[in-house]
Amino acid sequence: MPSTSPSTPVWPITPEQLRHLITCVTPRDLIDLSEHLPAGTAEMVRVLGREHAARLVNSLPGVLIRVPVAESTNESGRRRRAELGRLLGDELATTLFGAYGGETMRVPVLRTLLAHKRRRWISAAYDALTTGPSPTCSSQYDAINLLCMSLAAAGLTMTAHQIERSLNEVAPDASDLHQLRLL
Fold first, then answer.
1. Which residues contact 58 (CB under 8 A, 6 or more apart)?
2. Are 172 and 133 in a shared domain?
3. Are residues 90 and 119 in the same domain?
4. What backbone torsions phi and psi does residue 64 show, to the nearest 5 degrees?
5. Which candidate among 41, 50, 72, 139 keeps its CA 20 to 30 Å from the CA of 60?
6. Phi, psi of 155, deg, nearest 5
7. Residues paired with residue 105 on neighbouring β-strands, in sequence order
8. Which neighbouring-strand residues pair with 51?
9. Per-residue model confidence as pLDDT tens digits over 102-142
10. What's the start-to-end Cα distance of the chain, in Å?
11. What residues contact residue 16 under an 8 Å CB cut-off, 6+ apart?
12. Does the residue 5 lie in any domain?
């Protein structure tokens, strides 16, 4: 399992940081979690670049875009170019027109990638709360409840059972989490 990046806050973390961390795709995620990209998305990342691809999926997830041709002179094409430039910025819009002009493109949502990213954070935060020279939580139960409350404060509610399941899914050695099954 890839670890969180050194600049990524694990614990403590504000609700705003947590919401952004778990719900936004970063260029680094497109490398670390590339095995969770749907078919065709790897090609989009290659063509647009990681920075632009991450910005596109965060800005317009699930949107079906009729990408105008860069040199189109008709009113509809000019309107779509202007709108995409306003939403995505001129640089990304221009790259998009050059790569996909004249095509219809469905921007991926990347739910699976985001789910793996969430599990990875839960595992790292749980470890930070329960291990080390002076763990924040004295029990697994306390750590799981603190994770529940932190996620809820960020608007990302998960039950204790969902967090336990998530910890069991990402555990490199499930025998390390045998106590969780007692909860």
1. 24, 25
2. yes
3. no
4. -95, 115
5. 72
6. 80, 20
7. 65
8. none
9. 999 999 999 999 999 999 999 999 998 998 667 788 889 99
10. 25
11. 154
12. no
